[in-house]
Specification:
heterotrimer; A mainly alpha (631); B mainly alpha (538); C mainly alpha (99); B: mainly alpha; C: Helix Hairpins
């Protein structure tokens, strides 16, 4: 139904940060002094507006509001209206984006205080928030696509924020291009929708998707999934996400942990009416989720770079979410609950990591950390709560949301249910292992600091957001699963939650997961905590460790399958174009020139040669005349 | 308002302006530039007024003028514009003043007087207007060929080190295509003589003809080859990288931005309506060329080390999209293709201009001679990035709308070709970002050459600069010297060039509907000529 | 049958002139041979004029004579100037105008 009241102004959600970005980018150095404040203010204002809109939405009978803005592209049969859809699902994301976004903006004021380009940083962050809100609020797949590529741009700009470092510039390019591979899938899915259904709006597509053949629906589902994999760092497009840690840490927290990388989950949840109709595509989603969950967790065990461990942890956790949304109706809610909880604790962990780096002269090598808990008490406390929430310590966020996913998997009540549930449980153990390893290496043990490092706690403008996020890490799971069940709020989107007959009682699952987690923690303590951590990584390690250190050779595969053949092909084609195509033309020109030079030899300067030529010509003409008239 | 012959004025004003500029005394170069700028702004005003006078829902051809020209052949000096031609005229109107401003000092270093440069520029503008506005095929042909002359001199007299080679190549390629087209024009005249009893070159009469399919195929090929060379489609493309690289920046912008669009414009205006059966027959063949061009040229662009050649190759890739849109025969795709023609002129125009500004500072066209420019010239880097993003069709920029329309419109009819073309958007990201990363990112490397502009790279600082040898020496200078001096950011003049284009890129990217409304009726009429109804059957 | 005698004579004269132009090197002789060819043509023209009873042929013959006279003036002048600069009247020596 058309929006009224505040909801009709929900376009301001996007417009506010966008205006902030425009002012900061166009204003130049004049805005240096107050730019960060403006950037933060727009996002906070957007958050307030989002809360107000959500409250109004909760009061509506139909809990869904359309906002039509203007005709974007209309020609022939294509009619794309720029419009917003404010429903429980997009409200959830809007709150997450603006809420976590506001906290991270505040944190960045402190984190980027000494960077001469802080204004530019806030401009890009604002641009990101605007694009991300467009992604989740748009009412058509085209609007989603615009936001989708918009966040890709913002991500590119922010990863390459310190562009004088070649590694950052390369990582940014890699992220954009791997995302573009996914975008092709999304674009093709939109083309099929238009070709088959004649529309790209959610309402139109979901309303008539049932009329399509099963194969077409599966194709759409798989193409959308390709887009989702690109944006969310899922197999086989996961390699860009760890590299993206070259960006400033608040960027890693906001974009590469809490919001943008979960856009793939949003896309699949939003396209639930499509996936409900295609078992095949859902199975592929499941498989990719389970596989990525393991890849991320294994790689996370081997890295010494604190941000990369967290990045692989993100890859792995998003694998959980994919696994959940691939499970169908019951899984959507579980996946989204995990997404929200993850948004809190992972953002908190990244901000904590940023605080550690801040204290350690921007070092990220955990082998040179240690014993920081005394020096950084607030960071330790908040980071520790985030850690406990992530590994699923009983009654913290991760415990509720991860268990819910395992529960839904087992509820399938078939072999695959047990396999997926088993993978998820193993993943939980691995998560406990690598996160405990990270905790031990960073905060405990002996101090292995480099010379001249004097750790100090971050200013309160940085610690305050960390505290808020830590509180969220603690309570979000319980709130979302037990107190105010998310399934009720999302009912208008995914339908009435059916009370499933549990195959295994939730309490048993909780117990099993807790035991596995305890084993992970114990293993980490045995391998890392008990012994001295060497300041350089040991070289003589098992093949498994070596493979994990190379993230299971994802980059090597990409390089040898795509990059090198591509470079080779490019070089070959340049040669072909210069020598072959252009050579043929130039050869023709040279041939013509040569033959004309040879013909020119006939002009030898002797009068009688010319005279003979004339005579011959006259005879030919006369002969031809005779042949025509006389013959 | 409608009684005023807008199109005649749009040809006459720059033509007269060219004569005036050429006749100015040698010492009045500044005046020559000012007159040129004034005239080109006047043409922009005329184009805007013509658009106001145009009624999108009215007759197909409006603002018509017709004067008997060669009565013996039935040829008329007939001008008129449909929505397609009109948006191209607007593009010309917008681009030329910006090119004039950007080229303010372009010819100062040349051995030939700058006023000659600007006179050729204005003459080129007059010819370009003529070629889009002509509704008589013979007149179109005359403008089509006459357009070569000013461009030939712009490249040959004011270009880079290999300008002679490039100019001759450009001329010969275009001339060959033009002559083949002339044969087809005459063939069309003969057919019209036999069918109508009296020969004519008038487009409106010719499209009513009912031509034998075999004859159609021959005549189609005559036109098609000329336009495929002009556009250019692979494999007729090798003249463009040479010309685009050697031409002075202003020339490159108009060459790729407008001149080449005559080819794709010709597909839509002449090939489809005049030879509908042949167009359908050859469509798969053209689509193969188009899609091959998209991928092939994009890969080639990645392999270039010369920035101007790189941008030229990206354009060839983009022309593949335009051809795909035209030969998919759907309203959405063809509308997208026309919009693409405009958007590409704006986006690639900006890219060429910014690359030119970079080259003016660094004195080298090689990507490898630059690095970390963003650190000292953020505005230049920003403009470069926006131009690059528009080139890779990022949503929010104008190119996205057109590329999206072309692809989504082609998909229902030609899914396989469209899927292959869509892969081109990955390659587009690669070539743009590779170039951007290598020049703008990384540690600052300073000027590639010893400071060629005597301490102040902004030409404004010293208008009386003799500089006859400076810029010519820079290109051939030996091993680059990195002295770590800073790249100057955009000057006010350069900002004035860049800002309107950026505004258009974003404006048309967010709200393209006005242009679409102008284009769509003309596209529907064009496709109607070949029996395609206003939409795809579903 | 008188017609054919005249025509055969004209053809012989023309052939002699043509062969002379082709084989002789002395510019003066070449020139005379050209005159011979012109007059062979004149003879043909007058013959046909006589046989058809019209004056067209005679008029053209007069034109040819006028042109021939003019040609002699220009041609001899050129030959004279070549002879002055090159001390030779051979047409083979004047071969600068070639590829």
């Amino acid at each position: 139904m058309p929006a009224e009241g505040l909801l009709a102004a929900s376009w301001l959600l996007i417009a506010l940060p966008l205006a902030g970005a425009a002012v900061l980018l166009l204003g130049g150095r004049r805005t240096d002094r107050w730019g960060h404040l403006l950037g933060t203010a727009t996002v906070v204002a957007a958050f307030v507006l989002a809360v107000a809109c959500t409250v109004q939405l909760a009061g509506l009978a139909e809990r869904s509001a359309d906002v039509e803005l203007f005709t974007f592209i209309a020609t022939g049969d294509l009619d794309v209206t720029a419009g917003l859809l404010f429903d429980p699902l997009s409200a959830l994301f809007a709150l997450l984006i603006t809420g976590v976004g506001s906290l991270i903006h505040v944190y960045s004021i402190g984190y980027m205080a000494h960077d001469p380009a802080r204004r530019r940083f806030f401009a890009y962050l604002n641009l990101f928030v605007a694009a991300m809100l467009l992604l989740v609020l748009g009412n058509s797949f085209v609007a989603l696509y615009v936001g989708w590529e918009g966040v890709g741009l913002a991500s590119y700009l922010l990863i390459a924020f310190w562009y004088t470092r070649p590694a950052a510039a390369t990582a940014a390019k890699k992220a954009f291009i791997m995302n573009r591979v996914g975008d092709v899938g999304l674009a093709l899915a939109i083309f099929i929708m238009f070709a088959q259904l004649g529309t790209t709006s959610y309402a139109g597509v979901f309303g008539s998707i049932g009329t399509l053949a099963g194969g077409t629906i599966t194709a759409i589902g798989l193409l959308l999934l390709l887009g989702a994999c690109g944006k969310s760092g899922q197999f086989p497009l996961q390699a860009w996400l760890p590299d993206a840690m070259e960006g400033p840490t608040p960027v890693s927290a906001l974009i590469h942990a809490a919001t943008m990388v979960t856009a793939g989950v949003y896309l699949i949840a939003r396209s639930a009416p499509i996936y409900d109709l295609t078992e095949t595509a859902r199975t592929v989603v499941l498989a990719i989720g389970a596989l990525t969950l393991l890849i991320g967790a294994i790689a996370g065990c081997a890295y010494d770079d604190i941000k990369k461990v967290l990045a692989y942890s993100t890859v792995s956790q998003i694998g959980y979410m994919f696994l959940a949304v691939g499970l169908g109706p019951a899984g959507y809610v579980a996946g989204l609950a995990h997404l929200l909880a993850h948004g809190f604790f992972k953002a908190g962990l990244f901000l904590g990591a940023g605080s550690v780096m801040h204290a350690m002269n921007d070092s990220v090598d955990m082998r040179r950390f240690g014993a920081l808990w005394k020096k950084l008490p607030v960071t330790f406390g908040t980071f520790g709560l985030g850690y406990l929430a992530l590994i699923g310590f009983p009654f913290l966020s991760g415990y509720f949301t991860k268990d819910a996913i395992i529960e839904v998997a087992l509820d399938r009540d078939d072999v695959w249910g047990w396999v997926l549930g088993g993978i998820a449980v193993i993943g939980a153990g691995l998560t406990a292992f690598y996160m405990t390893r990270l905790m031990l290496m960073t905060f405990f043990g002996r101090a292995r600091w480099e010379d001249g490092v004097h750790p100090h706690e971050a200013p309160s403008v940085m610690t305050a957001p960390m505290i808020v996020l830590a509180l969220g890490s603690v309570f979000a799971g319980a709130l979302l699963v037990a107190v105010f069940p998310l399934s009720g709020w999302l009912e208008p989107v995914f339908g009435e939650p059916e009370e499933a007959a549990h195959v295994v009682a939730p309490a048993v699952i909780g117990l099993v997961v807790t035991v596995v987690m305890a084993f992970g923690v114990l293993a980490a303590w045995l391998f890392v905590g008990r012994r001295e951590v060497p300041v350089t990584a040991p070289v003589r390690v098992s093949p498994v460790t070596r493979a994990a250190r190379h993230a299971l050779y994802a980059d090597a595969v990409n390089e040898s399958l795509f990059m090198r053949p591509g470079q080779w092909l490019t070089r070959a084609l340049v040669w072909v174009d210069n020598r072959g195509v252009d050579g043929a033309v130039n050869g023709l020109a040279a041939g013509l020139g040569g033959s004309s030079a040879r013909l020119g030899r006939a002009q030898n300067g002797f009068v009688r040669t010319y005279a003979l030529g004339m005579l011959g010509g006259a005879v030919v003409v006369a002969g031809a005349l005779l042949a025509v008239t006389g013959g | 308002m409608t009684d005023i012959p807008w199109l005649v004025l749009m040809i006459a004003v720059p033509a007269v302006g060219a004569a005036v500029v050429a006749a100015l005394p040698r010492a009045r170069d500044l005046l020559a530039k000012q007159v040129t700028l004034g005239v080109s702004l006047l043409v922009l005003l005329l184009a805007v007024l013509a658009t106001v006078a145009f009624d999108p829902d009215g007759d197909r051809f409006q603002l018509t003028t017709s004067v008997s020209w060669i009565p013996d052949f039935g040829a008329e000096f007939a001008l008129g514009a449909d929505g397609i031609a009109l948006v191209m005229l607007l593009l010309i109107g917008v681009l030329v003043p910006l090119v004039v401003t950007a080229s303010w000092h372009e010819a100062d270093a040349s051995p030939r007087p700058p006023r000659v440069f600007f006179a050729w520029l204005l003459l080129l503008e007059a010819m370009m207007v003529g070629v889009f506005a002509a509704t008589d095929i013979l007149l179109f042909y005359v403008f089509f060929e006459a357009m070569l002359v000013p461009m030939y001199f712009l490249i040959g007299s004011f270009g880079g080190p290999r300008r002679q080679y490039a100019a001759v190549k450009f001329f010969v390629y275009s001339l060959v295509g033009g002559l083949i087209m002339l044969a087809a024009v005459i063939g069309l005249y003969v057919v019209s003589t036999s069918q109508l009893g009296e020969g004519t070159f008038a487009f409106d009469a010719l499209r009513q003809l009912d031509i034998d399919p075999d004859v159609q195929k021959l005549l189609f090929l005559g036109f098609f080859i000329a336009f495929a060379i002009k556009a250019p489609l692979v494999p007729f493309h090798t003249w463009l990288p040479d010309s685009g690289a050697e031409a002075p920046i202003g020339g490159s912008v108009l060459l790729v931005g407008v001149l080449d669009k005559v080819g794709t414009f010709g597909f839509l205006r002449y090939c489809l309506p005049l030879f509908p059966d042949a167009s359908r027959f050859f469509a798969p063949f053209v689509l193969v060329l188009a899609v091959a061009g998209i991928l092939y040229a994009a890969l080639l662009a990645m392999g270039q080390s010369d920035m101007k050649r790189l941008v030229s190759y990206t354009s060839i890739s983009h022309f593949g999209f335009i051809a795909l849109g035209i030969f998919a025969f759907t309203t959405e795709a063809a509308t997208g293709a026309v919009l693409y023609m405009v958007n590409h002129g704006i986006a690639t125009g900006l890219l060429f201009l910014v690359v030119g500004m970079l080259i003016a500072r660094g004195g080298s066209r090689q990507i490898g001679d630059y690095g970390g420019v963003a650190a000292t010239a953020p505005k230049l880097a920003g403009a470069f990035l926006i131009a690059g993003l528009a080139s890779l069709a990022l949503p929010g920029t104008n190119s996205f709308v057109s590329e999206f329309l072309v692809l989504i419109g082609s998909f229902p009819e030609r899914p396989v070709f469209t899927i292959l073309a869509t892969l081109g958007i990955i390659l587009a990201a690669l070539y743009v970002l590779l170039m951007y990363q290598r020049t703008m990112h990384g540690p600052p490397r300073g000027m590639p050459l010893a400071d060629v502009h005597g301490g102040d790279p902004t030409p404004e600082a010293d208008p009386a600069r003799g500089g006859a040898s400076a810029a010519t020496a820079t290109v051939t200078a030996p091993a680059p010297v990195r002295d770590g001096s800073r790249f100057a950011d955009l000057s006010r003049r350069e900002l004035a060039v860049v800002a309107p284009l950026i505004a258009l890129i974003i404006g048309l990217g967010v709200y393209p509907q006005p242009l679409l409304e102008l284009i769509e009726p003309a596209v529907v009429a064009t496709l109607g000529d070949m029996g395609v109804s206003g939409g795809t059957d579903r | 049958m008188t017609l054919s005698y005249y025509l055969v004579l004209a053809a012989m004269l023309f052939t002699i002139g043509a062969v002379g132009v082709l084989v002789r090197r002395n510019a003066i002789v070449v020139f005379m041979c050209i005159e011979l060819m012109l007059n062979a043509v004149n003879l043909t023209l007058i013959t046909f004029a006589r046989s058809t009873g019209t004056v067209d042929g005679q008029i053209i013959a007069l034109f040819v004579m006028v042109v021939a006279a003019a040609e002699v003036v220009v041609g001899l002048a050129i030959i004279m100037s070549i002879y002055r600069t090159r001390r030779s009247a051979s047409v083979d020596d004047a071969n600068l105008l070639k590829y």
